[in-house]
Specification:
The structure is a single chain. The chain is α/β, with parallel strands linked by helices. It has one domain: Rossmann fold. It is 31% helix and 15% strand. It contains 8 helices and 8 strands, in the order ββαβαβαβαβαβααβα. Strands 2-1-4-3-5-6-7-8 form an 8-stranded mixed β-sheet, sandwiched between helices. Helix 4 links the parallel strand 5 and strand 6. Helix 3 packs across helix 6. The longest helix is centred in the middle third of the chain and has 23 residues. The chain is globular, with a radius of gyration of 18 Å. It starts with a strand and ends in a 27-residue tail after the last helix.
Length: 329
């Protein structure tokens, strides 16, 4: 059975420009997939006439990587997660609430310093192209949800904002934002307030032990705010501090925030699997911490009682996933 990828970058070159959305097929995806050597090639491209067979009338969940992730790394991180959610893996994380699970590749890499300072515009452009894709006659999904990591949260919010600006009733459902590299007040910001309104449910997973968000996000956002007149920042990452809503915001009514307790030590790389590296006894680059994140996302979509493998996710989590930890607004 194939696993489909949606790419907004040229997978055949090292170009970091944003392209129109193209669909690729990874043939024979299953428990035996060799992720360390997994590649997409021109022959894996899905003709536009066949795209409707994948998406039309179906509930789709997109898995989106973050910043400084090249094509191969995107395939080997989002791929194993989508594999599990699609029921093609070994860890029993099949998401019943999604008919199709699609990893998304976008060009957030390059020279690490300069590419971060351009990431604001790259994510915005990717979101605009993503909206074009979702609104095309070939897609026509019945429902669209997202799981994102790091700067992938900005791609999600840009995509939803651009889409509903053209079709306010688009069927967006759930966005799970893990280690989100956006400001803590992003859901209330003028750029993304419409996206917050359009999503039925927003779930945030954060960790104060995320050193990338603590150091690089804080410094990078401050510099980026100085470079671009239209980039306003609090320098407090949503994926560390959780959401900050203003009084009267509609956000809290549809937002759930879950913090991984400091004792776990959840760092920025502990969310998506790394299919290039084995972490025995788990397959395909999953570790115990990453497995907890995967099972958390699975249980969000299927409204199940989440039971973490790692102790210390929070003493007040004993009631199960619902109601889980009380929001910290």
């Amino acid at each position: 059975m194939p696993l489909y990828f949606l790419s907004f970058r040229d997978i055949l070159t090292t170009s970091v420009g944003v392209t129109a959305g193209e669909v690729y097929s990874l043939p024979g995806a299953g428990p035996a997939t060799a992720w360390p050597t997994a590649r997409l090639a021109g022959a894996d491209w899905v003709p536009w006439a066949n795209v409707a067979n994948i998406f039309r009338g179906r509930r789709v969940c997109f898995v989106i990587h973050g910043f400084n992730v090249n094509t191969g790394a995107g395939i080997r991180s989002c791929g194993p997660m989508a594999q599990e959610f699609a029921g093609l893996g070994k860890l029993a994380m099949s998401v019943a609430a999604a008919d199709v699970v699609v990893p998304v590749l976008w060009p957030g890499d390059g020279l690490i310093g300069w590419s971060w300072f351009n990431a604001f515009h790259t994510a915005e452009t990717t979101g605009a192209r993503f909206a074009d894709f979702l609104l095309s006659s070939a897609v026509q999904a019945s429902e669209v949800s997202f799981v994102s990591h790091s700067l992938g949260a900005r791609v999600v919010l840009e995509t939803v904002a651009h889409t509903v600006a053209r079709r306010p009733d688009f069927p967006f459902d759930t966005a799970v934002l893990t280690a989100a590299a956006v400001d803590d007040n992003a859901l209330d910001s003028p750029d993304f307030a419409a996206a917050t309104k359009a999503l039925r449910r927003i779930v945030i997973l954060s960790s104060m032990k995320d050193d990338v968000l603590k150091n690089l996000f804080t410094i990078g956002s401050a510099v980026e705010g100085a470079l671009w007149w239209n980039y306003k920042t609090t320098t407090r990452a949503l994926g560390r501090f959780g959401p900050a809503f203003k009084a009267g915001s509609p956000g809290p009514a549809k937002t759930e925030w879950y913090e991984i307790k400091p004792g776990i030590g959840q760092d920025h790389g502990d969310y998506l699997p790394d299919g290039a590296k084995a972490v025995p006894p788990l397959p395909n680059g999953w570790s115990a911490k990453r497995q907890d994140v995967g099972e958390f996302c699975h249980d969000v979509f299927d409204a199940l009682a989440f039971t973490p493998n790692q102790k210390g996710w929070g003493a007040d989590h004993t009631a199960g996933f619902r109601p889980g930890w009380p929001p910290k607004f």
